[in-house]
Amino acid sequence: MTVRVKIHSTGVCHTDASTLWGRDPEGPGGLFPTILGHEGAGIVESIGEGVTNVKPGDHVIPLWLPHCGGCRACGKTNLCEKVWKMMGKGVLLDGTSRFTCKGKTLFHYMGTSTFSQYTVLPDISVVKVNSAARLDRVCLLGCGIPTGYGSALNTAKVTEGSSVAVWGLGTIGLAAVMGARKANAKRIIGVDINPEKFQVGKKFGCTEFVNPKEHEDRPIQEVLADMTDGGLDFTFECIGNVQTMRAALESLQKGWGVSTIVGVAGRGLELAFPPFQLLIGRKWTGSFFGDYKGEDLPALVEEYLKGELMVDEFVTQELQMDDINKAFDSLRGGKG
Ligand code: CXF
Ligand code: ZN
């Protein structure tokens, strides 16, 4: 049961860039030739037989992490067993590809392929959202914003009055900051080596900043421990760097601090750290799509429409499809 969607807008996520640049992380598959893109929004153009969740004309967000709703995992997580089996295979859940170019079959990407005028997806891979919302904004709810926002609200469950540090003030990190603010954290420290990010960080809720480049004489975990009476209640790694993941763990309060890995490390990289860090009760976890399911996205769209969720503020550049490579250049330069 499939749906054809006319894509209106798409964001460019760093995962698209990693795949394009030959540094595909575990997950998407890295198969070429393909149509990249997985952070889109569009309008249902037609539906196949048996489709009941959407109809032509509906505004939808494609889901790169759909779920069947019937397996063991669906009851507990957003990591559906049925979907997981097909992850990275470059085809739809039914094993087919619906794209060709000059007679040659193309691979799908993350089940969505939003860098396209039209895309075909399984019905469980689209969610209907309020048509009052701008599609060139809510496309960002297809990946980056929920990933960061949900890591703070759903995964770590940041508590009121707590202290938080976020490594990496890109889309994911800024969205984690926004989640921490929503949870009424008292202190939210942005950690980034690019001081240009501090201004924007403030807009999203950072109360302080630390630039590790200004503290090269000692480990950043010591700097943060000094600032926070021994350590933070919550830390978030939103870069995907195994060194900063370790620093984020070691910056926690002993006994109760929780560090959440949100950034995606390169394939094959491994973490090394003294297990004593865990013995003394520092806790490590990770967050995939912010622990959201597709069915949660309409509520985020409503939050946006009510002015309670920042989305417009994430947009750094708007380009036409023909100029898409400029978006990748911006990502490469740390500007987008
Ligand atoms: C990624 C995270 C790493 C696995 C594939 C999907 N998330 C979104 O870009
Ligand atoms: Zn993404």
UniProtKB/TrEMBL annotation:
Cofactor needs: Zn(2+)
Gene Ontology MF terms in the entry: S-(hydroxymethyl)glutathione dehydrogenase [NAD(P)+] activity; zinc ion binding
Domain Alcohol dehydrogenase-like N-terminal, residue spans: 3-129
Cellular component terms per the entry's GO annotation: cytosol
Protein origin, superkingdom: Eukaryota
GO BP: formaldehyde catabolic process
Domain Alcohol dehydrogenase-like C-terminal: from-to ranges: 172-303
Keywords, comma-separated and alphabetical: Metal-binding, NAD, Oxidoreductase, Zinc
Assigned protein family: Belongs to the zinc-containing alcohol dehydrogenase family.
Protein name from the UniProt record: S-(hydroxymethyl)glutathione dehydrogenase
